[in-house]
Specification:
Blueprint (H helix, E strand, L loop, with lengths): L5 H18 L1 H21 L4 H15 L3 H10 L8 H14 L5 H13 L3 H13 L5 H9 L3
Helix pairs in contact: 1-2, 2-3, 2-4, 3-5, 5-6, 6-7
Subcellular location: Cytoplasm, Cytoskeleton, Spindle pole
Subunit structure: Interacts with microtubules.
Keywords: Cytoplasm, Cytoskeleton, Microtubule, Repeat, TPR repeat
């Protein structure tokens, strides 16, 4: 394991996150702090990697919108379950845009969705329009266009 490689930390966190997607909520919550730690280390080692910054934003967004029943499970499993806020997620999404403007359609979409969660319709509309206008190069870009309002 290369401790000084930002990519190693980023991909370790991504892979561990994917494990949670397949093994369920218990594994996802159990790995949450480790995932966060590796994304933070990746950002520390390479503060210009917009993808790592964006993924840290997703981590924050995910735990900010965690449903009540998952929070209850988390409280039963851990003394201090992972949590975050939409404001923190927004900060990471904006930081990713500052590092590499318009690098990823999903970052634009999540900026819009986060502003909606924070009840700022004007900025939500601005970022959702940017996501809509983003040229669809990949299948994921096309999916973002379809899901921009969900």
């Amino acid at each position: 394991k290369n401790e000084s490689s930002f990519a190693s930390h980023k991909w370790y966190a991504i892979c561990l996150s994917d494990v949670g997607d397949y093994e369920g909520i218990k594994a996802k919550i159990a790995n949450a702090y480790i995932i966060k730690e590796h994304f933070e280390k990746a950002i520390e080692l390479n503060p210009k990697d917009a993808t790592s910054i964006h993924l840290m934003g997703i981590w924050c967004y995910t735990f900010a919108e965690m449903p009540w029943y998952q929070r209850r499970i988390a409280k039963m499993l851990f003394a201090t379950p992972p949590s975050s806020t939409y404001e923190k997620a927004l900060g990471y999404f904006h930081r990713a845009e500052q590092v590499d403007p318009n690098f990823y359609s999903k970052n634009l979409l999540l900026l819009g969705k986060t502003y909606l969660k924070l009840h700022n319709k004007k900025l939500a509309a601005f970022w959702l329009m940017k996501a809509k206008d983003y040229p669809a190069h990949t299948e994921e870009d096309k999916q973002v266009k379809r899901n921009r309002s969900s």
